[in-house]
Amino acid sequence: MSNAKQEKSETGLTELMRDVDSYIAELSQENHNNYNTPTRAFSLQQPPRGGPSYMTNRSHTIHRTHHVEHSYQPPGTQSASATPVKPYGHYNHSDYVNTYLTKNLQENDPLSRSSSSSVSSQVTSSADTQLDLSRHASIFTTCMPSHYSFLSILSHSFLRRIKALDNVRELFCGNEYPESFTGQEAVKMLMDLLEGIPETYCTLIANKLMKAGLFEPIHYSQKSIIQGTLFNSPDEYYTLKDEMTEDELPTGILTSLLPCYSPTCVPGQGGCYVPICPNKLDMFISEFHITDELQTTMNRTYSNLQLNDNNNNNNNTQSNSQLAWAQQAPKGLLANLSKREIARQEAINEMIYSEQVYKNDLETLIQVIVKPLKSRSNIISSVKKREEFVKEVFGNCRELFEVSASLSNDLVGLQSQNKFVPMIGDTLIQHVAYFEDHFSQYCPRVSLAEYLVKAEEKNNPDFERFLVQVEKSKQMRRLPFRHFLLNPVTRMQRYPLLLTAILKKTDKDHPDFAYLTKCLEMTKKVASQSDRLSEVFKKRVQILEINDQIKFKHGESYNLQLTDPHRKLYYQGSIKRRSIGIEVTEKSDIHIFIFDHLILMTKLRKTTHTDGKTALTYRVWRKPIPLYMLHVVTNDVITHNPSRTLLSNTTTSYLHGASNSFPFGLVPLTLHHLGRKGGIYLFSCLPEERQKWVTAIEEATASMKKRLGEDVFDVITLDDTSFRTVATASGGTGKQGKVNCTAPFYAINNEPKIAVGTDTGVYFKNLGQIGAQKVLSCENVTQLAVLEKYHILLVLADKTFKAYPLNLLGMPCKNGKGPDRLGQEIGQHIQFFQVGVCNNRDIVLFKKKKNTMSIFTCLEPLYDLGDAKNQKYITQKTGFLLSSRSSHSWFKKYKEFYVGAEASHVHFLKSKMLIVCERGFEIIDPENLSVGGRDIPDKGDPQFNFIQRQADSIKPLAMYRVHDKFLLCYNKFSFFVNNRNGSLVQRGPQKLPLLCEWEGNPENIVFQYPYIIAFDPYFIEVHHVDTGDLVQIIPGDQVRLTHFSSENDKTVIQGCMTHSQRPEIQSIFYLKLNEQRNTSVRKFI
Description:
Strands 6, 7, 8, 9, 10, 11, 12, 15 and 16 form a nine-stranded mixed β-sheet that branches. A four-stranded antiparallel β-sheet has the order 17-44-43-42, with no helix packed on it. The chain is of the alpha+beta class. The chain contains 25 helices and 44 strands.
């Protein structure tokens, strides 16, 4: 040790020992024999049984070791054989200071005492190991202050024992309070540490440690909380404070554990002239703040030197004389009552008294905390936030107070009339009937209230200072705010215990027994209901805490909507990643949360703060996946596309790694985030883990669908067996090719059918029957249309446009000639065609491309080929090309015009045509072609600059008239323009003019009021046309639109996708609008 440090310590000790020098000088002149003096521990314990006991002398001044043999004798009798102790005067002040410094510098840190060297003449006392002096013939009497007189050292050893105890036994509260123990265990540990100190005094020392903040009662120990006292009982539970560090341990000196510095002062003889002599009973009592009744107990103990463990427990239980019914009742009444009835009255008295304390605590909560929070603006400044905070945290505490006040008044009235309470159940049952509504509303929300308080403390220093101030007030009895907040919860859990205690002392034939039994059932029911409801709020708090722990990458932010009160977490856990290139498991795991509206993928980070506490942080790894945009794949089939990686279930996809390539029995799990903002995320896990993930996702998805109600569109299957994309294994037959288009119609017998165009020809499918009939053999059929009024089938195959008599297809042909000879060629090099009605004319329009222009020809059908009188126009043609005149024999030309851009689609209005082209949309009046077209949107209008800025990446897809506006649909978004002047329709202040932005990359967009439907290759998304809200997602693989028609308020939407279970089969479906559901409430969140 450095000289400076030693000098500093000597200076402090000089002041500390200002009274010692005079006594040392006085004692050095004394030559009488100083017989060994019994220690304080001996003076306070009962006489030893079966032989003498030995104790260690504790001295405040001398650090010397003496070999002394002695036996304890009661005060007033000295042993003749006692060996005298060397006089104190043989040591001077310098010896004392040097010895004190050396010893205490070695033992300053209790953790290092065992490893530090000690002088051979000194005996070091350990925090966890005490010398059993009774086992040694030669006794070491150490005249030094006990280490445990220092509150920090005693606290440290106590903590170590508690933590060791927690590893060898379990308590009912061990899950909620991991480091918990009983009052009996706490006293027993102190008795082991302070060898020789009686149990009564160890109870007082334990109370000192609790009041110093080392531990606290759990919320089930209402007696300890109400009275602020530790009870030496196996039924009262306590728990350590959270993560207390060495610097936070309570400090101080328990002078009562030290002998008086006067060498002639002997413990057990009433003390000496020293004002603060610890051998004086009143000084011992004053240090531990002992109550009146315990003081009486101590006086009795001190005078008789007898302790009875059973009486000790009873005295501890009655820490306040007002709680003991027997002390209040007249002696004549007690003499006439049996012990069982006295015990019953004691149980009733505890019910009455504890109800008073509970009522007063509720009143304290309202007056000291709630009212100032509501009235003072310097705590929570915002009036709205203040009101919401008080409502969420304190709920209906005022109603609880009114219920408790009414019950307490009636109970006190019963007892005030006569100290003897013959019946209490009839009064209780009148009030218990009101418990359910009030307690069921408050108790479950306590976990949320605690979270809100902690959050406000963290973010609002004014609120934190307010709580610190009120906790110091006398009204709060120095109890933490949390005690008052949780008081109704613990009270509700205590009612069954109090009632059970009364019932045990009540005979079954007693008129009170039935009332009490019913009250017990009712309170248990309310407590059980509150516990069940509390689980909902605990889960909500868990989500809120997760929300607080989530961090985003720099520059990223997502509205996760985790603060929604209805949010639900289905599953969370870590899962191993896999690379896309080769099936290897990467080291870093991904922690995934499955909520009821999205899946969140994060990386878990643990951060240790300077105070030693560990904080969890979830850093978002990839964009959250909305459940409606999620597709789960449990096999390992991946399509690798250079431009875009997509999932596929087809057998033609590249199978990248088999299941046996996964090490340690792992299986694949792939999450596909649909849409242009998504991606594919590959994971691997054990089979049972994958089942948990899949089950959780299915449950979350089912919950979302239930919450949203019925789907807007039902997907109705038309055929899922007939059309294969590959040939069968036997002989390579049965390949129908890719389905490209469909056309519904009715046959001659009014039977519903669909025409299906594939890569290999045209098929007719009877709805409701299995199989399909091939009626035309032609390659690359891209478009089909049926003119039912004229019984004509229009087919575009390999850019050749032909018309066929509908009724003759699929029927045996005369002379063995195929049905394709019945067709009439309309044109070649045709890009697309469209049928519709314009100016009350049935129009067949087709487009050819010439340089950069689109040339349109409009035809009108002339004959109904289903009419027998028109059969003469159906002739089997030769293989030669028809003349220009004869090729239109079933049609006549109506109009011909061109557009100076590449066109992709045409919509028919009542008297005009809407041309969709690469530069935008153009409206053509076929009856007035000289006027020219009208471009929408107007390129010169600055309102549409957002289109011009991304003209290279956007593509017009469709245009529909909705009320008095036009809906313009591009491949990225859609918006409205006015019908009259083509101006942009604004959607409101501070809102983008866009109706919606597509989740995917749609290739086709159709409209059926009030919904707009976009077809992406991997899903169909449905938006409400008035609000733009996404209302439905229909996932699939290789999804495509095959038919759309809307005439006379009848809309038909048909499509095709890969079969969900058999990837070689294509499923043809149509979308049926569910008109029974409410169209205004469904919205994904």
